[in-house]
Amino acid sequence: MFGKKIFITLAVIMGLALSAPQAKAKQDILFGGASITGVYYQVALQISNIMNKYQGDKYNFIGRPTGGSVFNINALERGAFDFGVAQSDRNWQAFNGSADWDGRPITSLRSLFSMHPETVMLVTRKDTGIEKVEDIRGKRVNIGNPGSGQRGNAMDVLRIYGLDHTKDFRAEGLQQHEASRALVDRNIDAFFYTVGNPSAAIEEPATSVDIRMIPINAPGIKKMVEERPYYIMTSIPAGTYRGVDQDIETYAVTATVVSSESVSDEVVYDMVKTVFENLDELKASHAAFRNLVVEEMLQGLSAPLHPGAEKYFKEQGWM
Ligand code: GLU
What we know:
alpha/beta, D-Maltodextrin-Binding Protein, domain 2, ten-stranded mixed β-sheet, globular, binds glutamic acid
């Protein structure tokens, strides 16, 4: 009696399944961000939200935390991700085979569009006595996890200021969410970080302890910025973070959304079109995206444009 009921129910369900039109499987798309408290993860999550809202019948976008720019570029090459966020300086180096990619250019790397500017920062607690970059001598300082974009920027800053991370101070390679925590817990004295503003990774320690941000503006920094097209001098405005009441001069890169030549033109076109058609929604989704402007989003792309993005920009008459 009971068994018969189950049998009938199963038969009905199977009948329904067979007669229902077969739903086309959605394509999973992986989008790599960086540390969970940074802004890249927000880029990956917010664009994924927009894609799943407007193109959800076709795609299932998944934003993932990762090790950062260098990790993302390498993961795109391996085909482990479809999209990722990376610093404009790292893109240039990867495509041209320098720095982390010395003699091993990532020729498959493709640009889609630029996002927010990211400042190179050195953040400390007020009680460490660190007031200028040179003062990190003898201290414990996070220079960024291998795979992050900030690690390369920290190494450039250290070289220009004549500091050696193997002997002048104790260098740590923490992921940023660990570094922010370690600063509050006094397990480190300072961290280097290259990120859009405002970032939760700096807001969090700034609300727990008194922080100080150190200018990175030596003549050698300005010279490097002049020589390299992907850097600009800038300032983090006073009041961006609690307790930092004056403008902090430093240099900046641009966060860019990148992909690989092996990702299809259709997927890239659908993504780029949906993002630009809903740009106001993306701008409203995080304070660091507030000032995005179409014209600027098409600049600073150091790897070649992906044909799927180019198609959309041409249709719009933007290029
Ligand atoms: N610029 C950092 C990197 O390339 C990530 C910053 C962020 O997560 O917003 O790894």
